[in-house]
Every structure is written in structure tokens, then in C-alpha cells.
Amino acid sequence: MKQMIVAVIGTMVICIGGCAGSLSPHEELNQAVKKSFDATGFTYSSKSRVTNLSLPKQDADAASKAKGLKYLEPGLDIVRGLSVNMDGAVDMKGKRSEALYDLHYNKDNVEVSIKLPLLVDYNTQTLYVGTSFLTTILDVVSPQGPETRGKLIKIDMNELLKDGAARTPDLSKWIGDDRFNPENMAKNIDVFNNVFKDGILKAVAKLNDSCFADQPLTEQDRKTGVERRIQMNLGHDDSVTVVADMMDSMAQALFQGGVISKKEYDVLLTLTGKQVLDGFADKFTLTMTNDVGIAQSGHVGYLATRLSIADKEGNYQFGVENVSSFDNYNAPRFSITPETGRTVDFKEVLAAITAAKAKDKSASEPDEEAPDDDSCVPDGPAQDGAESM
To answer: Virtual CA dihedral for 308, 313, 315, 317, nearest 10 degrees?
Structure first.
């Protein structure tokens, strides 16, 4: 009897403890998103693609016949085959971000991939471009210029803007704004990140619990260490509310943080005001689904977002999907390393291109025509029998 009582009590303790430690899908998601945003960095892999893009046939036919729009439908077909892949890392503490952009096209037995690796150092306002098709083009354009293969092209954004400002007065005024000096711009990165984080957290927290539901784990989830999958399913009203709340809170935070001026803030309010959004909501239907995988560490390890927009009749439709995975929280790994010293300054490349163009122009210009030899010979005396003038 004593053993039975102990077993029952033990079972009750386990059940109560398990229930107390188990959060609802909404609470679990809020906690995971906050923990992920609080991390000092992470690495990620992302793929975005258009899942639906369609126009009414009569509109497409009319547009194809219109001047300058005959390539609209073929252009839409190309977009349907495009995807943008990104692999990168973010270091909030060091204020660096890296991304390998891969513009990918795969349709009708044609597959093309163009990659562009970029590293941004916000502390020094420097952009580094990794080896890609761009460096190949530069080597062809200026073969006598600095070697770029296997090296990073270093672009000082401050110098680039100053050079542009010397030729453009309006740009000069913009650069002269104190908000855009290097020190303040580095600080503004923190402001932007905090604004983005707070905007999402507040918007998601306000949603109804019925928008969240647990989903069964997939085989891929188990392989990648995801231990809970939660779906956030938003209908039209909830989607519009989330977008409106995020834009409003971000605009206020940016203004209060001094990142945008009062004039810019007023413009944002005009574009994101309730009247504008209500007018949009009356004409289009917006739905959003987010599948979130939470890792054993409590961070977001997987995120699949599917967004769909269509007019009320369903004639105009647009759908987009983004699937991302995240890891190495608080210890991001970078593949672009300018500290190794294998860099070439973009100004050197530009100077080489300018010199190559000048040389080609000089070589293509014809030499001045030499005077006709006969024109330099003076007229001789008139021959015998010739009439004098």
C-alpha cells in the first residue's frame, strides 16, 4: 500500500511539474523570439522565392499589346523561376554582417546562378566584395589593373559618398547631416536592431492565442535539433493588424531615437496611417503563415514564412515564401576575413578602368591625315605652246 501511494504521488508530481514547465504555443514562441533577438550574433541560411504571380488573362493580353509592355508576360515567367538564396552571419557586438547572395534561376531546363559575397563593417563604414563574377568582369575590363582574383575588393563608403557629393550638391547636404557621420551611423545600427526587435515582439504578443498551434515534428526537424514546431496562422485582419502595429511602433522608435527627422516621421505616418491601410485592406486580402522550429537551446532554429496577397476577386495574386535556418547563436562564424590582408582598394580598380578606357579611346581615334604631297609642290612654268592666263 505504501509503495502504491508513493508511486501515485510521484506520478502526480511528475505530471504537475511537466504541466507547470510546459508553455502554451504563443508563450513558447514569444520566449524563443525574444531569446533569439537577445543573442549577440548568429549564422543563417535563407531562401526566398515567388510562389504565385498571376494577372487576369485579359489584362495580360492588353498589356502585351501596349507599347513597351510586350515582354510583360515573358518577364513574369522569368520572375516565377527566380529565387534568392542567402548564407551569412551577423555579429551585433562587432557590428558586422556577412551575406553570400545567390540569385538563382531554374526553369524550362535552364539553370543559372550568380553569387555575390558581401561583408559590411558598420564601425568603419567599409564594404568588402568577395571573389565573384564581378571580379572576373573587372579583370577583363582592366587586365593591366590590380589583381582581384582571390582578393576582397575594399570600398570605403565614406570616401565613395564624398566623391559623389563633390559632384552632386543635394547629396552633399544629405551627407552633411550629423546623423550620417560614421560614429552616429554605427550607433544607429543598434537603434535599428532594437526597433525591429521591439516591433516584432509587441506585434506578436498582441495576437490572439488561437493564432498559434503546435505541429508534429518532421524528420528534418529531428536532424537539425528542433524539438518543438509552432505554427502562427494569420488571417486577413490579423495580418493587417500585425503589419500596422509593426510599422507604427518602428516609426515612433526611429523618431524618438533621432534616426529620422520629424518631417520624415510625418511622411511615414502618412504612408502607414490607418486610413491608408484600411483602404488597402478593403481592396486586397492578405494572409500569412509562419512555421517556427524551436531548437533545444530555446532559440529559433527554423522559420518558414508564406505571404499571400490577392484582390477580393482573386484575379491578381502574389505569393512569396522565405525559408530560413539559424544556428551558432552568440558565436557567429564568418567566411569573409579582410583581416588576412588579401584586399585591393576599389579606387585602384577604378583608376585602372579609367586608364584602360582612355588608352582604348586614344587607340581608336584616327591619326590626322597627312597633307597630299602634290599640294606642297609649287606650280612650274607653263609649257611651250600653252596659253597664258
So the answer is: -10
- C-alpha cell belonging to residue 141: 575590363
Cell of 14: 511528475
Cell of 226: 528542433
Beta-bridge mates of residue 232 = 212, 290
CA distances 147 to 126, 135, 155, 181, 349, Å, are: 20, 9, 16, 32, 9
- Chain centroid offset of residue 13 CA: 50
Per-residue pLDDT of the chain (389 residues; tens, 9 = 90+): 444 444 444 544 444 434 434 899 999 999 999 999 999 999 999 999 999 988 876 665 665 566 556 667 777 888 888 999 999 999 999 989 999 999 999 888 888 888 999 999 988 889 999 877 776 776 666 666 677 777 888 998 878 777 655 565 555 454 445 555 555 666 667 777 888 888 888 888 889 999 999 999 999 999 999 999 999 999 988 888 888 888 888 888 888 877 778 888 888 777 766 666 667 777 888 899 999 999 999 999 999 999 999 988 878 899 999 999 999 999 999 999 898 878 888 888 778 777 767 776 777 766 555 555 555 555 555 444 444 43
Q: How far is it, in rounded angstroms, from Cα 200 to Cα 226? A: 22
